[in-house]
Amino acid sequence: MSLQIDRRDLAFLLYEVLDVATLPERPRFAGQGREVYDAVLDTLEGVAAEHYAPFRKANDQQEPALVDGRVITNPGLQQGWDAVAETGIIAATHDEARGGMQLPHVIASAAIAFLEAANIGSASYPMLTAGAANLIAAFGSEAQRQRWLPRMLAGTWSGTMALTEPDAGSSLADLRTSARPLPDGTYAIEGTKIWISGGDHQLTGNIVHLVLARIAGAPEGTKGISLFIVPRNTVAEDGTVGGSNHVTLAGLIHKMGWRGTTSTLLNFGERGTCVGHLVGEPHKGLAYMFHMMNEARIGVGRAGAAMSYAAFRYAVEYARTRRQGRVPGEKDPTRPPVAIVEHADIRRLLLTAKCAAEGSLALVLECARLVDEQETGATEAARQEAGLLLEVLTPIAKTWPAVYGQEGISSALQVMGGYGYAREYDVEQLYRDNRLNQIHEGTNGIQALDLLGRKVPQAHGAAFALLGTRIAAAAREAAAADPALAPLAQQLGAALERMGAVTTRLLAAMAQEPARGLANATVYLECASRVVYAWLWLRQATVASRALAAGATGREADFYRGKLQAARFYFGQELPRTLADADVLERNDASAFEMQDAWF
Amino acid sequence: MSLQIDRRDLAFLLYEVLDVATLPERPRFAGQGREVYDAVLDTLEGVAAEHYAPFRKANDQQEPALVDGRVITNPGLQQGWDAVAETGIIAATHDEARGGMQLPHVIASAAIAFLEAANIGSASYPMLTAGAANLIAAFGSEAQRQRWLPRMLAGTWSGTMALTEPDAGSSLADLRTSARPLPDGTYAIEGTKIWISGGDHQLTGNIVHLVLARIAGAPEGTKGISLFIVPRNTVAEDGTVGGSNHVTLAGLIHKMGWRGTTSTLLNFGERGTCVGHLVGEPHKGLAYMFHMMNEARIGVGRAGAAMSYAAFRYAVEYARTRRQGRVPGEKDPTRPPVAIVEHADIRRLLLTAKCAAEGSLALVLECARLVDEQETGATEAARQEAGLLLEVLTPIAKTWPAVYGQEGISSALQVMGGYGYAREYDVEQLYRDNRLNQIHEGTNGIQALDLLGRKVPQAHGAAFALLGTRIAAAAREAAAADPALAPLAQQLGAALERMGAVTTRLLAAMAQEPARGLANATVYLECASRVVYAWLWLRQATVASRALAAGATGREADFYRGKLQAARFYFGQELPRTLADADVLERNDASAFEMQDAWF
User: Fold this and answer.
1) The complex's ipTM?
2) Given CB atoms, is A273 within the 8 Å cutoff of chain B?
3) Nearest 10 degrees: Cα torsion B253, B257, B259, B265
């Protein structure tokens, strides 16, 4: 079990870094406490170990198949779904009055990470269902809540997000699925959606699609999109499941990874009236969907964090037991080979994997903690600040666990050599699975435009400035806590300052010519991500340093020394990459912008 | 066909950059010329398109299976083998007197790249056979050459390299396979080898394994290893194939990619005497094997170059035809979507793929050209210099097309979004296939130790100094040819100078404490690779600039402008990464070196 996510590390992040134990002081979490939280984590870790991990390979090797128009899945998928539904985790953060557990997001998120580390192909189904349910809870009418939510939260039905169309991948403005008003106030939905994860299967009694479509006569572009609840089978007002609602499976897509999760092409209303129920007001669908999408984006980040974490733990285990070669300078071939963790380059690879995995987990838990703060913070100012930080951190949380996490998984694979590359072992699957996270829920390029084009300039740069304030405060605190951390604090301060100067220049360039100013948005996102991870690592180092000063011994001391050394590695080898990023951004290098199609 | 490797680019590298048209002035290539060379390229490009590319997916989806003790492969594998054997390419560089074509290595290498771009799972069989044959040609006795070579060169038999053992992956010093002298001068081989590519199949009448083993009583370590020819079936002196030589297939390993190539666990002599024929002198096997391994390492680089090239061309094709979204600043949603190549971030991804693919091809052809120079250079000095450059470039040619090429393939995949990730398309397979190239024939870490620990210090740094001289000369030539290239030349000069200073410091550190001095060898390899690619891109830019100045027009001008712009992108966005590398190396960052096992 410990191969997936280290419980000691999780406790460190939750209780020593993020101070989660104080949350029960707030009314919403009254009566809860660390015992409750640890029990939830125990339960999900147990389910992950017993019902998820054993089927990771089955999901990969016996992927869902279309047989006589029905999707047939391996037995592990049903077992995993049932076990997770049983835990109530789909409703974890919902009100107790609605059957939820009213848990903090940060605890629910940590618990779900066990599932994602163990088997992402299975974990996606409950996560998509939770996302769809949260959207109905936030924007649906009371009648809609009563009709759809209880069964979704209980895991009787599942849910999906149906946005993308074959001719409009990242470009939601070009959606063509239509919604024609019917006399009873519902709509007839017609169109085709692609890449719909969990879009068809036999795991649940019904599937509730949340579909973006245009009502006849709606404005062009993103301002004419509405959101609909479209069940696979019709549902009477009392919740009884009826016949087909004419959502038909047109095909399964076969991906490099995430093979357990059906990826579908769905036709709506091709063979009969497909009824959709409008959520909220017409033409506001995109804003609603972005509510779920922000959550989904942080969820993608958490999945990447979890997968890279699993790969890291596999590699550490391998490096400790695999004996091979001798250290440089040892000339005697009769001496026994050393465990490969003794080789400096193996430790470099493992530290890369550790910094990516633990840094990514720290980031996504930070974001979940900010969601709690946004919802339950003591003051209006605290809630607003949390919201601002979340805005600016979301594109980073979506992207960097996918990108840096992939480097971590690749490093873990490299530690294991040929074994890492073989399907007889686990890491190559994680390498394939995690690669998707740079694509779905908005590609890296889309996140980069979101960060530099929207989140940084919005509200006169308030979110970006607030993040800078927090980072600077963490640097001061680190230097004050431990003189040995002062050089790291100084290095972070310098990176932050350079980033600020670059931001000013790029905003000016964008004002002159948007396309040119945004041409290096992805490099900007990379640079910002590296600075944010440095912030997260320095905070962890500060906590670790204080614990060591307070007298931690034995394995506890080893744990904290590992955190400190990882921070040193991060600042010694990873943060310097911002030297290259900043060089590109300061020149706002125009080579890609000026390239022409005909020259390729 | 042009989706695989652009013939215009290949002609540019061969005839405009590497001056291959002058090779027929040398006695060995007398009577040849560009027409001959282009005919060879035409032939292999045709075979790749007709018999290789159509089976790339079949190799991936119907991988070799063990049925009743026999390896069953998909029909494409046999068709590909037969078609390639027919071309004579296995014998391309061998003497005409032995049935070869006596072609320059640079031409043979370019021709083979078509096969590797089209289907690496099939291409590996002839390449391994050529490698084994070259080894026998170089170190076997005349009797051995006559007995083994004709059938291997004709493709009647295939060959393998059997080095690795389960308990000694990268550490050849720990090989345990034994060779017991038999009365007739042959040896009885006993042991187990793992990851033997092409180790069993039914494609050819026999398989000739080149096996490393220890003769009883040999010294420990690498100085006690000998090389043997070990056929799957016995071969009489007249070449007649007999019964089993007791090489038994103990299992197939299933990899993430390269699925068409059988990866085998082989037992030698477990069920009866397995006869091996000693090649050359006892205990010199490793030196002989390294002859083949250097060739194999450059071959791995070429495979990586070819795969990243194919991915690049797929992505360009996709980006030109896929229409989606609008450029920043365009507010009118009724305007039609643009081809995605119009988005600056897509061009950035494509330029990354272009720089990696074309830069890697330039490097491996440079190396092949140096092999020709080493063998047929006009003067002893020219031959020696070529040899020195090859020594220092080999670890880079092995590693960087695998690492940077993977970044290129990942960029190509990203351009295609969900389609790039789907197995219904081609790029995800290239992403899986190329990942192996960082592992086999010596991992990145092994190459890094080879570069910094052996190649750079050897002969008082002669090879490294010579490479520096060549790079500096190219920079001067670029600045002289075109004032617009002067800033790039200056940037390369600065990177080279910083690299030289770092090298001096690291060599001093290694003299004091080898393990500490070599702790960042991989970062050194990365830095050196980026500088070498800058050299290759600046030379291409120089040729392109001259061609434009000489009046190239139309599509020719577009081609040269593409080369110039790619060079600008490389110097604008990729070479700056050496700022981070040099920062790490100047401090000889000790964070990984000082990390301890217990802290993970």
Assistant:
1) 0.97
2) no
3) -20
